[in-house]
Design brief:
This protein is an alpha+beta fold and about 375 residues long. The chain is built from 14 helices and ten strands.
Length: about 375
């Protein structure tokens, strides 16, 4: 059975100690980061579930001395044997087991949200559960973008490909799967991060738009124009219908929201930022009519800066250098892909937000959790 969260009354770390702990993270080795991530996962589960469930999760999280791999064919998936591989290379099935167990204990039944669950055998390498309320069975992937995908033992390699920014050909080679399988996995893995945006931004918010060349990459018949090679260039100089507007809003804590706009006008900006940027924020922009129109209609405090958006002498903290820097990193990161299909541009934006939030040295388990739930990105944003 899986119990609900219970209070334990542990002491809370004060702000000064927490800030010191954040600074010390940068000095950790890869093995220490792996061990620390496992400890955080256990702590989160311990705060939300009963002791019996925490012990089950603890059994799924590897110890820093060795990596774990699944038992040979014929085993039921529960017997796990230790090897002498380095700690930083957690195996795919084990990473998935830890993330899946944590999700079940946090969310309960994916059909009705019930918490009265019992084990109901195993299937496809994952334990199944049955809900005592709705009487339906499920596993940890039910209701997630990864449901019904196969070859779970290679998902950790695909998570590594996302961490490295591999092309589809490189990802297929890394995972040992077909190109079409790598394509399907990529967009399943990015479906949840594409929706992983903060509901509110804090303090000073910088808002600006950028433009990305329209692309029909992957489309074969009925192209509205001649195909371009390796991304290509626009046929017209400056802004035109070939350029897709992308709105980015970012606060000084690193929380970022973005949107692919159907049109650069006030209505589209309002649909993207309504409720996310409020009168409690100080909005900074470079005077774009759509953004200024949104701010005035919503009666937001708005600082309009002369292009390119640098600070004025009388208000050095009001600028849009932060969001402009994000635009530059986004476009440089997209460059090796030689064009991103406009149809999937929102997935690429979610991918980049996750990269920014996790930073360097993130474990595969964090990416698997993001693919399952899409909530880790904004929790870890700096």
């Amino acid at each position: 059975m899986i119990s609900c969260a219970v209070g334990r009354g542990e002491p809370v770390m004060d702000r000064e100690a927490f800030e010191g702990w954040l600074v010390a993270i940068r000095g950790l080795t890869a093995a220490q980061r792996s061990q620390g991530f496992g400890a955080l996962a256990l702590s989160e589960a311990d705060a939300e579930v009963g002791v019996g469930s925490v012990l089950a999760l603890r059994a799924a999280v590897p110890q820093p001395a060795a990596a774990i791999e699944p038992a040979r064919d014929g085993a039921d998936g529960e017997g796990l044997a230790a090897t002498t591989a380095p700690a930083a290379s957690m195996s795919g099935p084990l990473s998935l087991a830890a993330v899946a167990q944590s999700r079940i204990e946090r969310s309960g039944c994916p059909h009705c949200g019930g918490r009265t669950l019992q084990r109901w055998g195993n299937s496809a390498g994952l334990p199944r559960y049955r809900c005592g309320d709705c009487r339906r069975s499920f596993n940890a992937l039910t209701g997630t973008p990864l449901a019904r995908l196969r070859k779970k033992e290679r998902w950790a390699d695909h998570a590594q490909a996302l961490m490295s920014g591999d092309s589809l050909a490189e990802a297929a080679k890394r995972c040992g799967v077909a190109f079409t399988t790598a394509f399907r996995w990529r967009h399943r893995f990015l479906a949840a991060p594409a929706l992983d945006k903060p509901s509110r931004l804090n303090g000073i918010v910088e808002v600006d738009e950028t433009f990305i060349l329209e692309s029909f990459k992957g489309k074969r018949p009925n192209l509205p124009r001649r195909a371009r090679k390796r991304g290509g260039k626009a046929t017209k100089r400056g802004l035109s219908k070939e350029q897709i507007p992308v709105l980015v809003a970012r606060d000084r804590d690193g929380l970022t929201t973005d949107a692919v706009l159907p049109k650069l006008d006030r209505a589209s900006v309002t649909a993207a930022l309504d409720g996310v940027v409020t009168a409690d924020n100080q909005l900074c922009c470079d005077g774009g009519k759509a953004i200024v129109g949104f701010a005035r209609r919503a009666q937001l405090p708005c600082c309009i800066l002369p292009a390119p958006g640098g600070p004025r002498r009388e208000a050095p903290n009001l600028h849009i250098n932060n969001v402009n820097g994000y635009h530059g990193r986004l476009k440089e990161w997209l460059r090796p892909f030689h064009g991103v299909a406009t149809k999937y541009l929102d997935h690429s934006l979610g991918w980049r937000r996750t990269v920014e939030a996790f930073g360097v040295g993130t474990h595969q388990q964090a990416w698997l959790r993001s693919a399952l739930e899409g909530r880790a990105c904004q929790q870890l944003a700096r």
